[in-house]
Amino acid sequence: MRTRVRACEFGHVRLTTTATKPFSQSRRCSSCSSCSSSLTPWLRTVSYYLSGERVSWIRRNMPEVPPGAPEVSRKRGAEAGAPSQRGPERKKACWGILTSQGSWADRSPLHEAASQGRLLALRTLLAQGYHANIVTIDHVTPLHEACLSGHVACARALISAGANVNAATIDGVTPLFNCCSSGSVGGVELLLQSGAYTHASHTHFPSALHEACKRGSSQCVEALLSHGVDPDYMVSHLGSPLYMSCLHQHAACSRILLHKGASANVGRDRDSPLHAAVRQDNADQVSVLLEYGADINLRDDNDQRPVDLAPPGGKTKQLLHAFEVSPRTLRQVCRIHIRRLIGRSRLTELHCLPLPPLLTQYLEHT
């Protein structure tokens, strides 16, 4: 027996300990004992709010459904079906879709094992029949996850199980791109040895070399270039890899690209790598670019030279002014022109020429 507060159609309140139903509005006030008594102003106020909260009272006093009970549809004649998917797990999954970079609702246990580097669990799942190329709604494979987290052993196990090393997501991201994003040199070498493409199928798709230059992973840059990647490979909205390296102030990556034959004057549209380095006031980048033949007289889309963009009083301003006063020496000019005549594809074979070691080191910038 529970004590309940009840109100008639006139808003009069009374307490009852019976399990009878609440008053309906069709109930006459003659059955209400409160009508014969004088209500205080406080009781009138309470009765008013109680009469206005009739729907809330019904909701509060509805019986709770046990956790394991089947859900019944509100539609007439509907049969009890499977439990609703609106539980905490469902809400958590939907929240993951909204907040994550991709869709996390359909990630398989194989994706989780690859992402977390659990090699034993990964092999167990593969032995149980999970497909190595299972994809999410965004076409993310377990190999993508392993490469993004830098787990080379998991990536090797997936490739041995038949994973596609050139699988691309809906955004064109490949496992090789993810390896460069995480800075995993071992993963880059593994994918290249397994037949991974070094260039994307479309020029607007993400480039592994550009990502390595953006992240400053000089070892990944060197690994890609050693497998024949074009150091001047252009992406329409990013420009050249050297431009990306200068934009993010990674002088080590810039030096490797220039040493492998990248053009010091190819950037994005009319904006040269020297323009990008000067905007960042990076004197080391500017010195490397000038050493490999960057032109200080090139103009960008705003018809400005690099010296016009240098911060006043900065190191790059002083360096460019000093270079204008004393240009390159004959030794530097000869080296730049000889390297251009040899060609980028043959620069790696300089040590095979019958030249004195001193001359070979001179041409290799060592």
UniProtKB/TrEMBL annotation:
SMART domains: ANK, SOCS_box. Pfam families: Ank_2, SOCS_box. Transmembrane segments: none annotated. InterPro entries: Ankyrin-SOCS_box_domain, Ankyrin_rpt, SOCS_box. The keyword DNA damage does not apply. Pathway: Protein modification; protein ubiquitination. The keyword Cytoplasm does not apply. Keywords: ANK repeat, Repeat, Ubl conjugation pathway. GO terms for biological process: positive regulation of protein catabolic process; protein ubiquitination. It comes from the Eukaryota. Belongs to the ankyrin SOCS box (ASB) family. This is Ankyrin repeat and SOCS box protein 5-like. It comes from Solea senegalensis (Senegalese sole).
